[in-house]
Amino acid sequence: MNASILRVIRPLSHFNYRIWAIGALVSNIGTWVQRTAQDWLVLTELTHHSASAVGTVMALQFGPQFLLLPWTGVAADRCNKRHLLMATQAIMGALALMLGILTVTGIIRLWEVYIFAALFGCAAAFDAPVRQTFVAELVGDAELPAAVGVNSMSFNAARMIGPAVCGIVIASIGTGWAFLTNGASFLAVLGSLALLRVSELHPHARSRHGKGAFVEGLRYVWARPDLKAILAMLFLIGTFGLNFPIFTATMAVKVFHANAREYGLLSSIMAVGTVVGSFLSAGSGEARFRALMTGTLVFGTGCTLAALAPSYWLFAITLTIIGVATLLFTSTTNSVMQLTTEPFMRGRVMALRVGIALGGAPIGAPFVGWVADSFGPRWALGVGALSGFAAAMIGWLTLRKLDLQPRGMPERTPGDTPPHPPQATAARAEQNP
């Protein structure tokens, strides 16, 4: 236990990482305030409990992650990561403030929310891969798994706080102020980026490839059976399983007839599970394919139990199970894919990861919303459960095909390239998701 705690806090010994973590925590709280407010605004104020409308917002917000893949990963590999992050964070902060002003003044319309969701999605598409690969520059490769876990703990601590704060803000002063709160929170992360000690960063060599750089990234992944399996699992879970705005909103409003505070509380309760999963991920000190398998199975089981939950509080308990499973799965895919990929290729590989995990929303979110509207929220959760079990099957078949036994990652020092070329690493896919 002591060793796990030491692994968790080790990244915080770096000044740059501490500053980044503080700014990111404040900004993440604001992000979860906005996400919760946006779903509530669409579901209860701009429509009459339309899960399909919530699904459309999700599709527009996450669709750019996939559509912009040819540019987002290349930008992460070629640009100065700190400067690119400052630009994307400033754009998202400005969009949040504009959405808040429109909502506070009472002139917001559903089609305007759709436009803002798409614009947020475009900015986030460039932000996500560079933000994930920037962590390695803050702490170095040797401490990357622990740093990814701490990042997840911060993100999900914010996920625990943000929705509860949002429920209070909506009930007290209105939905628009939740968006304004998020806009102001971006000042924290922009400030942290400005305060970083540039001389203490661990920059990786940037890609100098221009034309064909994205295709090069696709070929790299195609030569890696382990990465292909992980991306397939991410597609299933991301497309049909990670539709929590639809799951929690429709169950809260349509099944349990909850108010704004109770709806916000559900998201916070789920975040308790994700914080636990973050700690387990950070404390393990390594990334293993077996953790992926466990995460997908528990995710499927948790969604099944949630679909069958007879009461509000039992449903809330199942959300903690789903939270643990989701975090173990997503955190492990992050660490594994980064640590088994050459540094100059990481931006493109991580852009593929984000694009496939979130880019399926234009398919999955409207479909899950239609299922919730047509057959009920419990059946929508059943779709999520099937995605978890199907992802677990892909993982099991991959391990069987490669005839591997799960094991931890090989020792590496900061700046090292992977110990095996892509083909050899593919034959040892068990190292990381």
Q: Determine the number of helices (DSSP H or I, runs of at least 4 residues).
A: 18
Order of helices and strands: HHHHHHHHHHHHHHHHHH
Strand content: under 5%
Shape by Cα distribution:
globular
- Characterize the largest beta sheet: strand count, sense, and whether it forms a barrel: none
The structure class reads mainly alpha
Distance between the termini: 24 Å
Radius of gyration: 20 Å
Share of residues in helices? over 70%
Can you describe what's shown?
The protein is mostly helical. It is built from 18 helices and no strands. It has helices spanning 2-9, 15-45, 51-67, 69-78, 81-104, 110-139, 144-172, 175-195, 213-222, 225-241, 244-255, 260-284, 289-308, 312-339, 346-359, 361-375, 377-402, 422-426. The protein is globular and about 50 Å long.
